[in-house]
Design brief:
Belongs to the acyl-CoA dehydrogenase family. Keywords: FAD, Flavoprotein, Oxidoreductase. By secondary structure, the chain is an alpha+beta fold. The chain folds into 3 domains: 74 residues, no CATH class; 110 residues, Butyryl-CoA Dehydrogenase, subunit A, domain 2 (Beta Barrel); 164 residues, Butyryl-CoA Dehydrogenase, subunit A, domain 3 (Up-down Bundle), CATH 1.20.140. 51% of the residues lie in helices and 15% in strands. The longest helix is centred in the C-terminal third of the chain and has 34 residues. The strands form 3 sheets. The chain has a 4-stranded mixed β-sheet. Strands 2-3-7-6 form a 4-stranded antiparallel β-sheet, with no helix packed on it. A two-stranded antiparallel sheet has the order 9-10.
């Protein structure tokens, strides 16, 4: 249940050394791709709400991949098996009170001790999903000067670690996902917990963005579908003015507009899943970064429309936290969690255009050289 959260292809050699050769349904670990990832995320989000799935999946999906891709063999062998078996948990800790989408501005520091055996980590992390019950965090820290060049990634022990204080944050939605505020006060972390090399943190963080944003987009698209499906079911049975609500043209109009938006988004997501399955990781990062950011932003807009439509059609039932409209009320409350985390919407829109322009100019330059 945990392994399908990882990027494709899976760490096959590691899994087989652990005696894991198949996933749910008999799928061989060698054959796992983003098509299977998409099915898994869709099924996990069939509830429509993010909390339960996020409580199980987010740390695995985002905290482990940098270790798998860039961690030393010693770090991988020491940390990954117990995470894969579910014996311990991990989270990704990037965001800070004053640095969200602007990753290059984080201030949490990691300074080597005089003996050279430890990093001394101090700072704050905020809105960290799964943090409160995680044994480790894949954490962005500043090991050098300002800007992206000074960032590194470090596996920081959390639960039971001296100098670490964690408190659960109250959020409007996703209450079971363990959103956490982490205080770090001179936390001693072995230098062997460094992922990759110092100064490569930004590169390692961005490498996993396509996987992260695709997972969010698939999940949010499913939530939009659950909200709209719930609204359809309700207006088919709910009667007003002597007939089911579906008989009213204004109701059909609302459903049609949201349905068109949802089906367009769903087709786009399928296209991105196909491309992620066929492209190499390096080509996918280069070609799909802008598209993935745009799709993530669009998914937030569509779930907003679908959830709002559902609440309005449920009427008073959609405004209460119990009864027939309980689910759509919850989905509507979680709309900000679709539009902000994983890169806030405005940042994603800007990133998408900048990335697309960058790729266009690079390819235009290549074409110009070919003509010469």
């Amino acid at each position: 249940m945990l392994i399908p959260n990882l990027p494709a292809p899976l760490p096959i050699d590691l899994l087989k050394r652990m005696g894991i050769h198949e996933l749910l349904g008999g799928l061989k670990v060698d054959d796992f791709d983003y098509f299977h990832f998409s099915i898994y995320i869709n099924e996990m989000r069939r509830l429509g709400i993010s909390g339960p799935a996020s409580s199980l999946a987010t740390g695995m999906a985002y905290g482990m991949p940098p270790i798998i891709t860039y961690g030393s063999k010693e770090l991988q062998d020491r940390i990954l098996p117990e995470l894969i078996r579910g014996e311990k948990r991990i989270c990704i800790a990037i965001t800070e009170p004053d640095a969200g989408s602007d990753v290059a501005s984080i201030t949490t520091t990691a300074i080597k001790s005089d003996c050279g055996k430890f990093y001394i980590v101090s700072g704050e992390k905020k809105w960290i999903t799964n943090g409160v019950w995680s044994h480790y965090a894949t954490m962005a820290v500043r090991t050098a000067g300002p800007g992206a060049q000074g960032l590194s990634l470090l596996v920081v022990p959390l639960l039971g670690q001296n100098g670490v204080t964690m408190r659960r944050m109250k959020t409007s939605g996703g209450t079971t996902s363990g959103t956490t505020y982490i205080d770090l006060d001179d936390v001693k972390v072995p230098v062997e917990n460094l992922i990759g090399k110092e100064g490569q943190g930004m590169k390692m963080i961005t490498t996993n963005f396509n996987h992260e944003r695709l997972g969010i987009t698939i999940a949010v698209t499913r939530s939009a579908r659950v909200a709209l499906s719930s609204a359809f079911a309700y207006v088919l049975r709910r009667e007003a003015f002597g007939a089911p609500l579906i008989e009213q043209a204004v109701v059909r109009h609302r459903l049609a507009k949201c349905g068109a938006e949802l089906e367009s988004l769903s087709a786009w997501v399928d296209q991105l899943v196909y491309q992620m399955s066929k492209l190499t990781k390096s080509d996918g990062n280069k070609e799909l970064g802008g598209q993935m950011a745009l799709a993530k932003a669009r998914a937030g807009m569509v779930v907003d429309e679908c959830a709002r439509c559902a609440v309005l059609l449920f009427g008073g039932n959609g405004y209460t936290r119990t009864g027939q409209g309980e689910l759509v009320e919850k989905i509507y409350r979680e709309v900000p969690a679709a539009r902000v985390p994983g890169g806030s919407e405005d940042v994603m829109l800007d990133l998408a255009v900048r990335q697309l322009v960058k790729n266009f100019q690079a390819k235009l330059k290549v074409l110009g050289k070919q003509k010469m």
